[in-house]
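Quick start: what a row looks like.
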Amino acid sequence: MSLDTELEQMSLAGRISTETMSVGELISLFRDGDLALPAGWQNRYRWSLIRKSALIESLFLGITISDVYLAANDTDQIEIVDGVARVATILEFAGVLPDGQGGTAPPLGLVGTRHLPALEGLVWNSDNPDANVLPPAMRVQFRRPKLTVHVLDELASPEQRVRFQGLLINI
């Protein structure tokens, strides 16, 4: 097969759009059922509490985090291809991450970090009156940071989808 033919079959040019999305938009897409975690996502989500807290700290401080890669799937959803741990941490902190048993995992309780030690014990919400709950104004602030997302469109061939996922794994 010639290089021209291989490029024509495998090229992702024109199939990937790059956009910015706020943390709040990401949470809403998931909550509304438009954004899906990939099958077996629990096996790819093994971050420590310190690392999860550091990601949340970065978002509060306006520090850019790594891009997220998504692909439209055949069920009219957008599936996370790369960035599962980052997105799952955001969803867990916001109290919308599935627990794997049909319910919702409890909101992530953070540990204090180097730059924001006051994150210690902070949770998005809680029924416990003694909990260190994130104030409503801080929830709005948390939803504002922008993430760069790359989305492979639904017209990509199965071969292109496999290539997209394979390229990301090997980067």
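That is the whole record. The mean pLDDT is 86. Residues 52 and 89 are 6 Å apart (CA to CA).
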